[in-house]
Amino acid sequence: MMITYKNLTLVDAIEVFDLEKEIFGTHAWTLTQVKEELSGSRRLYVGAIDGEKIVGYAGIAANGESADIHNVAVQSGYRRQGIARRLIARLESWASNQGASNALLEMRVGNIEALPLYLSLGYKEISRRKDYYGAGIDAIVMKKDLLSSEVKS
Length: 153
Fold this sequence. Notes:
- This protein is an alpha+beta fold.
- It has one domain (about 5-145): Aminopeptidase (3-Layer(aba) Sandwich).
- Helix content is about 30%, strand content about 35%.
- The chain has four helices and seven strands.
- Helix 3 links the parallel strand 4 (about 65-75) and strand 5 (about 100-110).
- Helix 1 (about 15-25) packs across helix 2.
- The longest helix has 15 residues, at about 85-95.
- It is globular and about 40 Å long.
C-alpha cells in the first residue's frame, strides 16, 4: 500500500462527503458544508490517497495568528499507520507559512483514538466546550504553539 498526499479541491467534494458520512455518521457535514470548506479562502484540505481513492483527509483554516484544524478523518481500515500524523504535519506547515503562530482543534470528549495522537504532536488542552457536538457531548479544545516546535512537511 502506497499512500500519497494531495491538496483537495471542489472536484473532490463528493468523495470527501462520502468519507465524512462513513466516519462521522449523523455528525457528518452536509455536502454543502464540504463544498464551502473545500472552496473557502485561507483554507487547506489535504487528502491521503490509496490508488485513486481518498482514504483520509484533514482541513485547516488560517485566521491570522491562529489556525483552526476543522477535520481529521481516516477510514477505519487505514488507521494507526501514521496517516493522520502526516496530514496534520502538512496542515501545520501550511498554517505556519500563512503566518499562524498556533493551531487549535476541538476533539470530542471520550475520543480515545485521537487524544494520544494529538498529545504526541504537542497539543495541550486549553478548555472545554459544553454540548459542542450535541446534547451531552462536550469538546476538548486543544492548542499547539507552531513557533516553538519544528514543523516537518
